[in-house]
Amino acid sequence: MKTHRGTYKRFRTTASGKVVRKRAGNQHLLTHKSAQRKRGYSTTVAVSPEEQTAIKRLLPYGGK
After folding, report:
1. Residue 27 has what pLDDT?
2. What is the pTM (predicted TM-score) of this model?
3. Which of 2, 19, 42, 51 is the most buried (most CB within 10 A)?
């Protein structure tokens, strides 16, 4: 099965097999947001367990 390129660009898997993503909200309209809030956007967060299986299916080699 082909890799879903949109998913490939947005998600990655960790060594333990979890799927992680970047946080939303750090692209524009940043001038009124606090530095603390903007720093929070730069971190990654794990995808919910319910969605991990579906996302892994779209990644190459099942997210391995």
Report:
1. 95
2. 0.84
3. 19
